Q: What sequence folds into this?
């Protein structure tokens, strides 16, 4: 039995490298200024989908909402074996909280068509909320299984899986269509396949193609006459499409999304303020890393009844 | 449904009739928030065949307990719980709804928020009532819930608000809020809810549940010795364990150490791990990100050991040792043993 599967992925800022310079006035992170990586647990989600395809057949479509540069994540997914990838990218999607993100992704999922399984990583390393998966399931009105560590069996419109719970695990039986969020413990994501890497290295979004050609037509500013650019880009875009190397980019209109429910407009939560954490040299007692000083410290802790 | 509009509603998580500690902790802050709003504090409890749980919740500070008692709610699955909670919220319109950020809470709260099309902030380290002015429209809002949490690698503390949607929802991890002192003489109302479910209960069936007793009791430990990235390896943690054992304490870890595979997540201290308040916290080889500090900064005494004198951990330490933990810890063990 073949499964029609969709995997949601996110390209995330490398959060270990965020500094005050990367912050904008309105309290949001200037993501385009940071090195971006494929969200780790989304790789686990993709792996689980590819594994189901290996064993039972089917298709794996990868969707991502992000800035134009998230095309990189789409190429990465294709190189690891996804059948299709599409990027949701538009100003209207930007500055979305988890509810607005889930809404846009749900519109994209419905646009892809009928599906059996939707996979997402448990959480993204920048927000750490673990909310988009469940809220996407809510927007699609399908059951959800979070913290999935293993798919144990499939059959008859249902799936059996192991999921992690507080202090242990449970084995559950769930009906399809279904959304699963996948934990890092679930699997080892497969690397890129050499042949696919060579092939999909050349995959591009229409925007990337146009940007490159824009500089060809206007080397100084990269802002040629739009009609000239359209003409110049027509053949390369058609070629890429014919070779299955054109990564579609969707705006709200392409996926029947109501712009009032996307992006900042569609976000009930607002950032009131951001405080940069200013580190003051706290009033601490400096203790030398030497026998006597340490012994003195331990003695003091005992005297103060901090230690028994 | 009695007219109990407004107020603060806390979701009380239970497993086998045992109410989760995080739910009780939420009642203490819930009480403060309700008082600041001049409104009541309610709890919603789902499950089957309750005995003294409603009274236990009232003793911990709430004014009313809404119970949803149904065999289909005996074991947690998402859809039946989300439906019952969302229906109750729609009926009594609380200002604020709080969930513990346990695995079940993180599965349920976003589903409820989605159903109600409202805002939710995860893993709040603080919750307060305050005013807000929209920066663009200049609209003024009074008495909003400030949902406060570290974000983006821990370099910032964000205050998030939900100005135009209700309820305002937030999740909080265990140990962040204090456990209230129960008062068995407290009285309150218990209201039984009608449970309306359609096909929700058939979507997911739990075949088997396996729970182990907690092996790590970080929250109750008087002494915590925690290792970070500086420990370098699982083998390196042997030294941390030795010091913890000698001092009669528990072993903790930073997220970096857990992510690095040096030790299990049960030992993680911090915003996405456990919050601890031991008498003594020793941070060895831990840089001290905001997320980590959020989980231990209220410890009685804090000793930081790090080779980097600029490490942020020193800003919360009472005693700072700039040195190699592999040299310093053996000295501590020797000094303690020979006293």
A:
């Amino acid at each position: 039995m073949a499964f029609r599967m969709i995997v949601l992925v996110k390209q995330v800022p490398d959060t270990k490298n965020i500094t005050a310079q990367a912050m904008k006035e309105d309290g949001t992170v200037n993501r385009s200024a940071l090195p971006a990586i494929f969200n780790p647990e989304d790789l686990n989600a993709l792996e689980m989908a590819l594994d189901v395809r290996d064993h039972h057949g089917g298709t794996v479509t990868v969707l991502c909402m992000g800035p134009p540069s998230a095309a990189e994540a789409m190429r990465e997914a294709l190189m690891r074996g996804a059948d299709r990838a599409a990027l949701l990218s538009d100003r209207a999607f930007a500055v979305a909280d988890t509810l607005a993100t889930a809404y846009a992704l749900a519109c994209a999922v419905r646009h892809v068509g009928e599906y059996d399984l939707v996979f997402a990583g448990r959480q993204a390393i920048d927000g750490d909320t673990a909310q988009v998966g469940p809220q996407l399931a809510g927007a699609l009105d399908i059951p959800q299984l979070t913290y999935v560590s293993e798919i144990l069996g499939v059959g008859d419109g249902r799936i059996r899986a192991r999921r992690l719970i507080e202090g242990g695990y449970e084995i559950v039986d769930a009906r399809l269509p279904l959304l699963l969020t996948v934990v890092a413990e679930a699997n080892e994501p497969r690397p890129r396949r050499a042949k696919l890497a060579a092939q999909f290295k050349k995959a591009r979004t229409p925007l990337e193609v146009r940007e490159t050609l824009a500089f060809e037509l206007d080397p100084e500013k990269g802002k040629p006459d739009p009609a000239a650019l359209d003409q110049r880009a027509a053949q390369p875009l058609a070629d890429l499409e014919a070779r299955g190397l054109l990564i579609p980019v969707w705006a709200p209109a392409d996926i029947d999304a109501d712009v009032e429910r996307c992006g900042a407009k569609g976000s009930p939560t607002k950032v009131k303020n951001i405080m940069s954490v200013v580190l003051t040299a706290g009033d601490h007692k400096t203790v030398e890393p030497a026998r006597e000083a340490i012994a003195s410290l331990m003695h003091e802790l005992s005297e103060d009844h901090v230690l028994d | 449904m009695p007219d109990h509009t407004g107020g603060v509603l806390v979701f009380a998580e239970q497993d086998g009739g045992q109410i989760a500690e995080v739910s009780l902790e939420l009642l203490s802050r819930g009480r403060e928030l309700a008082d600041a709003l001049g409104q009541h504090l309610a709890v919603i409890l789902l499950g089957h065949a309750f005995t003294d749980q409603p009274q236990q919740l009232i003793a911990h500070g709430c004014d009313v307990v809404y119970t949803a008692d149904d065999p289909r709610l005996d074991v947690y699955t998402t859809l039946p719980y989300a439906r019952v909670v969302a229906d109750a919220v729609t009926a009594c319109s609380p200002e604020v709804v709080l969930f513990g950020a346990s695995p079940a809470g993180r599965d349920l709260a976003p589903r409820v928020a989605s159903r109600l099309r409202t805002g939710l902030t995860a893993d709040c380290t603080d919750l307060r009532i305050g005013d807000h002015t929209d920066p663009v429209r200049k609209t003024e809002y009074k008495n909003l819930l400030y949902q406060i949490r570290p974000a983006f690698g821990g370099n910032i503390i964000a205050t998030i608000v939900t100005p135009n949607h209700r309820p305002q929802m937030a999740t909080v991890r265990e140990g962040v809020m204090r456990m209230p002192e129960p008062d068995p003489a407290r009285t309150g109302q218990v209201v039984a809810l009608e449970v309306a479910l359609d096909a929700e209960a058939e979507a997911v069936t739990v075949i088997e549940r396996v729970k182990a007793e907690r092996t790590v009791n970080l929250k109750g430990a008087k002494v915590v010795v925690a290792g970070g990235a500086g420990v370098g390896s699982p083998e390196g943690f042997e030294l941390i364990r030795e010091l913890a054992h000698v001092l009669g304490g528990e072993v903790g870890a930073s997220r970096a150490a857990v992510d690095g595979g040096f030790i299990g997540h049960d030992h993680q201290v911090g915003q996405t791990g456990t919050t601890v308040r031991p008498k003594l916290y020793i941070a060895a080889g831990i840089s001290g990100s905001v997320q980590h500090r959020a989980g231990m900064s209220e410890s009685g005494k804090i000793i930081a050991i790090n080779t980097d004198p600029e490490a942020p951990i020193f800003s919360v330490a009472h005693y700072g040792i700039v040195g190699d933990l592999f040299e310093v810890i053996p000295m501590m063990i020797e000094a303690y043993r020979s006293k």
In short: The two ends of chain A are 64 Å apart (CA to CA). Chain A has a mean pLDDT of 92. Chain A has one domain: 3-203+247-266.
